[in-house]
Amino acid sequence: MFNEEQFQQALRQPRLSGPVPEFLKANRAVRIRAIPEAELQASTLEWFEEFERKLELYGRLGVDLGWVLEWAKKYWWSFLVRDMSHNDQLYAADVRYTDVTTFGRTIVGIDEFVKYNFAFFDAIPDWRYDPLPGQAYLDVTPDGLVRTVIRYIGSGHWTGPLRLYPYDETAPVIYGNGRFVQCPAVDRYHFNADGLMQEGETLYDFLDATQRGGVLPRDDSWQFRALMAASKVPALLSRFGIR
After folding, report:
1. Strands laid side by side in the 128-140 sheet
2. Strand partners of residue 149
3. Helix or strand or coil: residue 182?
4. Structure pTM?
5. Alpha-carbon span 93 to 71, nearest angstrom
6. What's the CA gap between 177 and 217, in Å, rounded?
7. What is the Cα–Cα distance from 59 to 68, expressed in whole angstroms?
8. At 16, which helix (H) or strand (E)?
9. Burial degree of 193 (CB within 10 A; 0-12, 13-18, 19+)
10. Which residues, at least 6 apart from 167, have a Cβ–Cβ distance to it below 8 Å?
């Protein structure tokens, strides 16, 4: 059984496999300060304390959402320690999920959802997710269904190939160069009447993520401009009715 001590232990346990630089070695137009692991751990603890206070406020208003905190702890813990043994307590069997890397497709089912997540863990073995304080939004419908939006940051050393949809040997791949990456994202979760995630979505800036990882060049580089200029060819073909 999952318990509070497991959660607290995961909070205290360092995960990153190597040093965190002062600034990301990224290809963005400005320097980006890298957040060290101790600070990530502290902000995650602050987030959970803040989220608990938010749910207590709902309780005083007559809406009991204590289960959402337990769900959030179990969900965060499962990915941080890579333990999927409680998935049936977190997701509906037919959970539907989308991500930038699905290219518009929808992942259906727990097994496919797990496969998608582990594509990132295979590419970035020490990848950790940390929710950002002050950036969690909770909505309760008139029918009592719960929906959340949470902004967080992912951190780790990109040492392996990141497989995109369908996240197997047939998938297109982006290769990491071993550098430390840190990228913000936003997750949206919709829960059913049983308190299980029924629908979800991860949104992030793909240009930002690939430039932070050193895969996509800077916007003022000749390589980036050449990539953008290549779009002129299909545009001309389309204009002349050639597809």
Report:
1. 107-108, 91-99, 197-203, 180-191, 146-157, 128-140
2. 137, 188
3. strand
4. 0.90
5. 16
6. 13
7. 12
8. none
9. exposed
10. 115, 116, 118, 119
Could you read off the pLDDT tens digit of each residue along the chain, which spans 243 residues?
Answer: 789 999 999 999 999 999 999 999 999 999 999 999 999 999 999 999 999 999 999 999 999 999 999 999 999 999 999 999 999 999 999 999 999 999 999 999 999 999 999 999 999 999 999 999 999 999 999 999 999 999 999 999 999 999 999 999 999 999 999 999 999 999 999 999 999 999 999 999 999 999 999 988 888 998 878 887 876 766 655 666 665
Cβ atoms of 110 and 95 closer than 8 Å: yes
Closest by CA position to 182, among listed 204, 164, 200? 204
CA-nearest of 208, 213, 98 to 155 is: 213
Please choose, from the candidates 154, 204, 149, the residue with its C-alpha nearest in 3D space to the C-alpha of residue 180.
154
Decide: 161 and 121 in contact? Cβ < 8 Å: no
Bridge partners (DSSP) of residue 33 are 23
> Per the structure block, which two tokens stand in for 124?
């970035």
Identify which of 223, 130, 125 has the alpha carbon closest to the alpha carbon of residue 176. 125
Q: Which helix (H) or strand (E) holds 100?
A: none
The rounded distance, in Å, linking the Cα atoms of 142 and 161 is 44
Contact call for residues 156 and 126 (beta carbons, < 8 A)? yes
| Integer Cα distance of 210 and 36 in angstroms | 20
Q: Give the separation between CA 119 and CA 187, rounded to whole angstroms.
A: 17
- The phi and psi torsions of 21 (rounded to 5 degrees) equal -70, 165
